[in-house]
Amino acid sequence: ELKEKEIEFIKLACTDMSYKEISEAMCCSYKTVEGYRDSVHKKLKVKNRIGLVLFAIHHNLFTP
After folding, report:
1. Which tens digits make up the pLDDT trace of 35-45?
2. Could you tell me the domains of the chain?
3. How deeply is 39 buried, as exposed, middle or buried, from its count of CB atoms within 10 A (0-12, 13-18, 19+)?
4. N or C terminus: fewer CB in 10 A for the chain?
5. What burial class does residue 1 get, using C-beta atoms within 10 Å of its C-beta: 0-12 exposed, 13-18 middle, 19+ buried?
6. CA-CA distances (angstroms) from residue 58 to 21, 24, 51?
7. Can you give the pLDDT at residue 64?
8. Quick check: 41 and 47 in contact, CB under 8 A?
9. CA gap 29, 50 in Å, rounded
10. CA quadruple 10, 3, 58, 48: dihedral positive or negative?
11. CA nearest neighbour of 4 among 26, 30, 29, 31
12. What pLDDT, on the 0 to 100 scale, is given for residue 60?
């Protein structure tokens, strides 16, 4: 199950923001964002950001 911060990360990762910009928007460190990324990729069984975006669109977490 995804945590609230992981869902927030997914929504921001679906934009054109860099991970550094995401860390600033989430008020956390770059390393924390990397942790969210790794955790989300593992939980959702996606390999990269494109896979994450496709998952988010398919599951109505993001609308392009």
Report:
1. 999 999 999 99
2. 4-58 (1.10.10.10)
3. middle
4. N
5. exposed
6. 25, 27, 11
7. 87
8. yes
9. 23
10. positive
11. 26
12. 95
- Hey, what are 57's tokens? 């669109």
In angstroms, the CA 28 to CA 50 distance is 23
Q: pLDDT value at position 48? A: 98
- The count of residues in the chain is 64
12 touches 22 (CB < 8 A): yes
Contact between 57 and 63 under an 8 Å Cβ cutoff? The reply is: yes
- Amino acid type, 14: C
- DSSP-derived secondary structure letter, 60: T
DSSP conformation letters of 12-51: HHTTT--HHHHHHHTTS-HHHHHHHHHHHHHHHT--SHHH
